[in-house]
Structures are given as C-alpha cells and as structure tokens.
Amino acid sequence: MPAIFAHELFGRKAAKHFPEALQSIVQTYPKPFRIGLQGPDLFFFYKPYKGNDVIRYGNRLHNLPARAFFQHGIAVVHEKGRESQEYAYLLGFLCHFVLDSFCHPYVAQAMADTGIAHLEIEEELEKALIRQSGRDPFTFRLDRLVPTDEATARSIVPFYETDLPTVRTSLRWLRLVKRLFYAPRLPKETFLKAVMKAVGKYDSMGGLVLHHQDNPKCSESTDKLLSLFRHAIPEAVRLAENLDGCILDGGVLDPRFDRTFE
C-alpha cells in the first residue's frame, strides 16, 4: 500500500479531473471521500496489539479481485442515491484501488531486488510526496487525515461485512497509530525504533515511522513510484467515469476491476 499521504494526494489530484457531477459529490462530502482514499487499509490497525479477524478481513479484501466490491458498491449507491456520502466514499475507494494496483507489482519487485521492507519503500515515497507538496514530512500531522466523526463512520458501513462499532473503532485506531508514530524530532524516532526492536516488531512496523535520514537504496524505487503515481491519475479518472456510467445506465464494469489491489 502506498501510505496515507500518498493516497490522500492522489485522490485530490484525480478528483480535479473527474466529471463535474462527480467533483460536486466529492466536494459536498469531503470526509467520506477522504477516508475512502485509504480503502481497506482502514482495518489494518484495528486493535493492532494482537492479531484479530478485523485485520485479517482488511488483508483479505486486498487480495480479492475488486469487481465484487464495486458491484456491491453500485447497489449501495442505487439505494442511498448518487448525491450521497456513500458515493463519495466509493469514489475515494476507487482511487485507492487504482493507485495500489499500479504500484504494488513494482513494490514487490523492488523488495526482491533490494531486500528493503515494503513499508520502508513506501515511507520514502511518502516523504518525497510531502516534500513536493511544500510541507515538512516530519512535522506534517498524518493523523489529521483520518476523520472519525459519526456521519463518516456511517457512510462506510454499508460497503463491508461489519458493523458500525467496528468501523468507529477502526477509524479511531488508525488515527491513534498515526499520532503515536508522529516523530517530528530525531529523539522520538530513536525511541520508537528502540521500542519496536525490543518487542520484535521493527521488521514489520519500522516503516510506520518517517525516518529523518533518507535511505539511498530507495532512491530508484522512489523515482519509479513517483512516475507510476502520475500515470495512475488518468486511469482513476477513466474508471470513475466507467463506474458512474454503471450507476446511471446499468453499464458493465471495466475489465480493470478484475485486478486485485496487489
């Protein structure tokens, strides 16, 4: 998964090129669209101190072809209405799917070539994108990209095999994890790394901290991922138009929806 800011920025850039009617939906319901941009990653940090069915559910969604999710999403929008917060969420989710499916095959190859962990490769991309947006990657508050209000939580529930309390808790945990791993100064980064190493979680979770020292081994992968990021934007626009046609006219989802997020 490209990380939280990458998905946020990608969705904002793609939405600028959506048809006017879809732009209006996104602008009317910015919070559901924003969290939709995180896709099933929403569930990855649910009570992360132990393995659980919610985390496994999020991982399973990542490995399934997206078609079934979007076919169900179309039914949700037919029930809730095209001018709904649910449709805004689905449009955000679409952007997440496109960026992941563009980037993940390359990330897997880069991991094999360099031995660098998935999260660390994406962490370097995250820093590059935050810098390109004119911000400091170490003081930028990623946790504030996670809405936790009741209306947003309710907009998410119809799309998943889950309930409102689970979605509420997932949102709060995602925001909390991003807040805990916020390290604006080197001493906190050092402390977090020491704690993760002490509990044997550094290999799997070390990439959640934005490292103050860039990894030169990731420079090539970062350049490639930035290129994939740019090339994925027109595809997100095209698939949003296809999805909207299915909602309006009962059309057929594009074969691209047969891909998984991987």
From TrEMBL:
Residues 7-131 form the Phospholipase C/D domain. This is Zinc dependent phospholipase C family protein. It holds the Pfam family Zn_dep_PLPC. InterPro entries: PLPC/GPLD1 (IPR029002).
